[in-house]
Amino acid sequence: PKDVFGVGTAVLSGFALSVESELLSSLKGIAERSPFRNMVTPGGFRMSVAMTNCGRYGWVTDRTGYRYDHIDPETRQPWPDMPASFLQLAVASAEAAGFPAFSPDACLINRYEPGARLSLHQDRNERDFSQPIVSVSLGLPAMFLFGGLERVDKTQRIRIVHGDVLVWGGPARLRYHGIAPLRHGEHDLVGSIRYNLTFRNAG
Ligand code: MD3
Ligand code: FE
């Protein structure tokens, strides 16, 4: 894999393509049980990205802060199980990128409609920063912003497309990152949407 962003990062182009239909049908089942919702940040802003989760832990935000929770606050039920197709892809991706011991227990599913964005942030709600993060993109392409360890550091940008898998670990784990506002478009299989599956070890 090419580490176009430097040490600890890998872009696996098209790595998810062979399982795209399994991923999308599993995703549909998850969203039927724990629907997508636009959560509120501690600062009181409603996020433009809609989210749900599967796996033992789910990432949530509300006025009290960010956290991982075993329970979906909307349904008051545990999050749907992580489908085998999700788990297999995440573990194989991490291994291909040089992280043979990845055991994800959380999968955040982000849904972007045109205009939705994720401003520059760090992922620091997890306990074990030695475990990588695996991200799978489906649907419309996105411009990924990748900064440094400080918010003010210069950002690089790359376009990620349907089927791409990105792996972040080691010294890249705490780098700032975000997604530029999604451009309008139509994807043959997914429509006018981008999904991102983000696998983490949270517990
Ligand atoms: C780089 N999601 O949910 S995934 C997020 O496409 C998030 O929905 C974006 O950032 C999305 O927190 C990007 C790629 C990603 C995730 C975590 C990282 C890149 C990362 C942690 C460190 C460095
Ligand atoms: Fe993030």
From TrEMBL:
State if Glycosyltransferase is listed as a keyword. Answer: no
Highest taxon of the source? Bacteria
Q: Coiled-coil intervals in this record?
A: none
Q: Locate the residues binding Fe cation.
A: 121, 123, 177
Q: Extract the GO molecular function terms from the UniProt entry.
A: broad specificity oxidative DNA demethylase activity; ferrous iron binding; methyltransferase activity; oxidative RNA demethylase activity
* Cofactor field: Fe(2+)
What's any GO biological process attached to this entry?
A: oxidative RNA demethylation
- Cofactor comment in the record? Binds 1 Fe(2+) ion per subunit.
Q: What is this protein called?
A: Alkylated DNA repair protein (DNA oxidative demethylase)
Q: Which organism is it from?
A: Edaphobacter modestus
